[in-house]
């Protein structure tokens, strides 16, 4: 505030002189009454040529952050509206909507959970089962974490969105973060790390992740920041999956413990 506030020119010059020449007195005055100091703050700091008092800098920061955040939010809303070109059939890119919906299905939780459970069931190697089991756990973890963040943040979906998604939870009426973006980022990293893929396929995985994110904004389901945060969250979730990795030994231990519990009951 003191940076934008003009100097108190009405203060008598002898007073300014005294405060400037006697820093001890000025400091004592400052500690006496913060309210009074605020009134004459600019003459205390600036007139003595020492720059604004430190406290003023601290008061300035939150408002700067607030301005920066609201500007970012305004840009986000504007950009998301501009990019929401497939929000309905009669939007400017309405003809591409079916393709975007196909991308939506490719990143939906149900096909991923069902596909992983099927691969787990069909896998005849211990290593394959281990990978699929951990992917399955990762998908469940993703649903839980995204649900929690959505329920806490409660950001509404863009006004131009038509809520015609299949199989949603009640928290999915909120948009932050994009569950498709977290899943795509987490599964993309998982596939690249655990499957031996040729270079073109690796590029295809990355392309798919990016397109799933873009389709969320183009369909009008999300704002850009929902998707960006979703990608970051999914990236971090993969680290969590690695940290909590269930090895066959851990599994055997867990199964053994639960069998013991059942016997005990
Ligand atoms: C019913 C199951 C298993 C998952 C719901 C998946 C879903 C619809 C998430 C919402 O994604 P966005 O936040 O990207 O819109």
From TrEMBL:
It comes from the Eukaryota. It comes from Maylandia zebra (zebra mbuna). This is Polyisoprenoid diphosphate/phosphate phosphohydrolase PLPP6. Residues 1-11 have a biased composition (Polar residues). The keyword Hydrolase applies. CDD domains: PAP2_containing_2_like (cd03391). The chain crosses the membrane at residues 131-153, 190-211. One of its GO terms (biological process) is lipid metabolic process. Belongs to the PA-phosphatase related phosphoesterase family.
């Amino acid at each position: 505030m003191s940076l934008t506030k003009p100097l108190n020119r009405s203060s008598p010059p002898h007073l300014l002189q005294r405060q400037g020449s006697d820093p001890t007195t000025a400091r004592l005055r400052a500690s006496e009454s913060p309210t009074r100091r605020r009134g004459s703050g600019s003459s205390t700091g600036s007139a003595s040529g020492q720059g604004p008092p430190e406290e003023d800098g601290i008061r300035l920061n939150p408002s700067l952050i607030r301005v920066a955040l609201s500007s970012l939010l305004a840009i986000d809303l504007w950009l998301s509206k501009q990019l929401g070109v497939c929000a309905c059939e009669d939007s400017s890119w309405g003809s591409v909507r079916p393709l975007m919906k196909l991308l939506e299905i490719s990143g939906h939780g149900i096909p991923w959970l069902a596909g992983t459970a099927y691969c787990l069931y069909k896998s005849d190697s211990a290593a394959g089962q281990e990978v699929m089991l951990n992917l399955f756990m990762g998908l469940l973890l993703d649903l839980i974490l995204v649900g929690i963040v959505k329920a806490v943040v409660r950001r509404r979906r863009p006004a131009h969105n038509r809520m015609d998604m299949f199989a949603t939870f009640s928290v999915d009426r909120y948009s932050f973060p994009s569950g498709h973006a977290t899943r795509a980022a987490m599964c993309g990293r998982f596939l690249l790390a655990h499957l031996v893929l040729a270079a073109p396929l690796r590029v295809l995985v990355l392309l798919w992740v990016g397109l799933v994110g873009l389709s969320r904004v183009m369909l009008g389901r999300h704002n850009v920041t929902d998707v960006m945060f979703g990608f970051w969250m999914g990236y971090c979730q993969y680290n969590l999956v690695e940290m909590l990795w269930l090895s066959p030994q851990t599994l055997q231990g867990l199964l053994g413990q639960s069998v013991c519990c059942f016997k005990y009951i």
